[in-house]
Specification:
Pfam families: Aminotran_3. Its cofactor is pyridoxal 5'-phosphate. By secondary structure, the chain is of the alpha/beta class. It is 38% helix and 17% strand.
Length: 438
């Protein structure tokens, strides 16, 4: 999955001399581990709202980036960061009302049992901290994730991020389960199977003398191909991990902050109550900020025995940016916009499916949508080649998108929450044109 839509050396000769020069510079100074999007990478120099602009001045409709969830360079966020930077930026070892006000407003968006927050800089750090706290609270080490999950890049978290690929080893304390697939099985079977798979993973951990510490899922299953439904399918799995003495961790780095439309947080769609929630990416609209929201009794022993400090995590500038994001979501009714425009996009792709047999399934919630492409609609045969063709064809038509899923055949639509119907029409028109020319 990590290599879906990545630039590779085979396409180097197709690039202009300037593009080749930039890639050579990049490889020389950044090394071989980085990846670029698209067969013909995009050289982005500016962003505004839902638009990204390349070095030649061409603008691209951004239908993919959820970091700048309020839109690129939102003027209110830019102003909040600039004003606070010009006033003070320190850390959480000094008292600062702005940090406390933001923390209070943030936890107020969660169910009342999730009443404390700890700040980090990245989602990877947030999940790393969640693991430490879960292990302290449960006395266990075992972790259960979905088979193509991505939760981060620290040493501890990479061990339970199987989407990083076969050369990044999973920890011996990690078990993977299939993500639900309501496209290929009935919704009820998908729900039942996921609970059974988690129970089997728990049983296998215990059989090897490993006490379960936590089940962690991205609540929209984005790397697994975007799995929003059936609602409630998480509950049997959550019940199973709790029965085994473990915790349920909801990774809201991607689905959180109103993106799913119906609810502020992805886990709320399933009617489950997490023990820990991890946050990141859109939390401060591009300013590095993330966090862990949790039940106070879970962190009590950890806090008594281990001090926690993150030099940049939750600093006053981050808090100012984060507070502004919460205000924008409310003031601009972005959760409602995500629900309305998301339905419009899904309806549009369902209309396209009448003309293009390769569109096998359209699913999603709010502005997190997956379109599964197949070579045989009856057999539901994944078609990664056509998906890659669509992604790169859209790039040539000025629309940026990507793909995910175990077979690399699920188009991932995840635009900034300020995406409008007019933007959706451009996406749909470009998709029709690209599909017609594949």
């Amino acid at each position: 999955m990590a290599m879906v839509n990545a630039f590779n050396a085979e396409n180097f000769e197709k690039l202009s001399a300037e593009e080749q020069r930039l890639i050579e510079r990049r490889e020389r100074v950044l090394g071989p581990a980085y990846r670029l999007f698209y067969e013909r990478p995009v050289h982005i120099v500016r962003g505004e709202g839902i638009w990204l602009y390349d070095a030649a001045g061409r603008k691209y409709l951004d239908a993919y980036n959820n970091v700048a969830s309020m839109g690129h360079c939102h003027p209110r966020v830019v102003d909040a960061i600039a004003r606070q930077t010009a006033t003070l930026n320190t850390h959480t070892r000094y008292m600062h009302e702005g940090i406390l006000e933001y923390a209070e407003q943030l936890v107020a968006t969660f169910p009342s049992h999730l009443s404390q927050v700890m700040f980090t800089c990245t989602g990877s750090e947030a999940n790393d901290l969640a693991v430490r706290i879960a292990r302290q609270f449960t006395g266990g080490t075992g972790i259960i994730v979905t088979s193509l999950a991505y939760h981060g890049l620290t040493g501890a978290v990479a061990e339970f991020s199987p989407s990083l690929g076969e050369f990044v080893n999973l920890g011996p304390h990690v078990r993977t389960v299939r993500a639900p697939d309501a496209y290929r099985v009935s919704p009820e079977e998908a729900k039942t199977r996921f609970g059974q798979d988690v129970q089997a993973a728990i049983d296998d951990l215990e059989r090897h003398g490993i006490k379960p510490a936590m089940l962690i899922v991205d609540t929209i299953f984005s790397s697994d191909g975007v799995v929003p439904d059936p609602k409630g399918f998480l509950k049997p799995a959550v019940d199973a991990i709790r029965e085994a003495g473990g915790l349920f961790v909801a990774d809201e780095v991607q689905p959180g902050f109103g993106r799913t439309g119906e609810t502020m947080w992805g886990f709320q769609r399933h009617g489950v109550a997490p023990d820990i929630v991890t946050l990141g990416k859109p939390m401060a609209n591009g300013y590095p900020m993330a966090g862990v929201v949790l039940r106070p009794e879970i962190v009590a022993e950890f806090g008594a025995k281990a001090r926690y400090f993150n030099t940049f995590g939750g600093n006053p500038v981050a808090a100012a940016a984060g507070m502004t994001v919460l205000e924008i979501i409310k003031d601009e009714r972005l959760q409602e916009n995500a629900a309305e425009v998301g339905r419009y996009i899904m309806d549009g792709f369902k209309d396209l499916a009448r003309d293009f047999e390769c569109i096998g399934d359209v699913r999603g919630s709010g502005l997190f949508i997956g379109i599964e492409l197949v070579s045989d609609r009856q057999r539901k045969t994944p078609d990664a080649s056509k998906t890659s063709g669509l992604v790169n064809g859209l790039r040539e038509r000025g629309v940026l998108i990507s793909a995910s899923g175990p077979f690399g055949n699920v188009l991932k639509v995840r635009p900034p929450l300020v995406f409008s119907r007019a933007n959706a029409d451009q996406l749909l028109e470009a998709s029709r044109d690209t599909l017609a020319n594949l």
